[in-house]
Amino acid sequence: MPRQQTLRGTLDWSYDLLSEPEKRLFCQLSAFAGGWTLEAAEAVGVCVEGETVLDLLGTLVGKSLVVVEVAQDGSVRYTLLEPVRQYAREKLEESEEAEVVLRRHALFFLTLAERAEPELKGAGQEEWLVLLEEEHDNFRAALSWALEQGEAELALRLGAALGEFWHMHGHLSEGRRWLEGALAKGDAASVARVKALAKASWIAWEQTDLERATALGEEGLKLARKLGDEEGAATTLLNLGVAVMVRGELERATSLIEDGLPLFRESGDKWGLARSLLCLGLVAMFREDYE
Fold first, then answer.
1. Are 96 and 90 in contact (CB under 8 A)?
2. Model-wide pTM > 0.85
3. Half-sphere exposure (CA, 13 Å, Cβ side) for 122?
4. What is the total count of domains within the chain?
5. DSSP conformational letter for 51
6. Single residue among 188, 218, 236 that ends a domain in this structure
7. Strands (E), the chain
8. Cα gap 195→201, rounded to integer Å
9. Residue 3 clears pLDDT 60, i.e. is over it
10. Which of 126, 209, 214 is closest to 165 using CA atoms?
11. Do 116 and 45 belong together in one domain?
């Protein structure tokens, strides 16, 4: 279309005016989806010829290729308009560093997700949920890249770390798709797989797919015991216990959840212990053991 040719011509013209360091960072920034922070840009981008990422970002903003947004709290976020991002992504994929840049992007957001996960169980829960929602598109991009590249362990770790966020913010169907996709990509015995199985089992239970929740839980428990992963075993015992409780298997549910209690106590996991006691209370209620 003529208007598309004009847009392409405009982008070509703007790109040709950039210095080589600016061109390189501009292409690298296309790894981001939905925007990024300076910290993220510095982790993914490369300082070249003595110029910092911040300096280069400033010139790209000045040349109207990068959009800068300042929130009410003073935090700064950058983004590329989608046609510009697609153009930059084409340039990145034509270069020799596309895989390196996209890997750095995935690893940065894996680190962020794993740092956020324990914070969701504490006083900073609300702030971290906002941050994770803001970066959701970047997590999606990282997961897509990991699955496309066959990086099963990375995808399992990232999916497992985001499980609580998906659960708390109601992204159940999407979270389950990512987790199931990661589980299907590889079957290597690992702690990450145990954790992903536990998260997938919990979400399946939330969606009332009790058969799948039970199957995932049983697979996770078997693997956790094989690996000697007590933390994974505790979480899986709880999830499996809840699934069979809803199926009406109250005796088995009690046994499973009670088996996990000492593991939670030994590890000092108050969050898991609280959930287990709550679920035992529910089992007792269903058994009409009100006392």
1. no
2. yes
3. 8
4. 3
5. B
6. 188
7. 67-70, 76-79
8. 10
9. no
10. 126
11. no
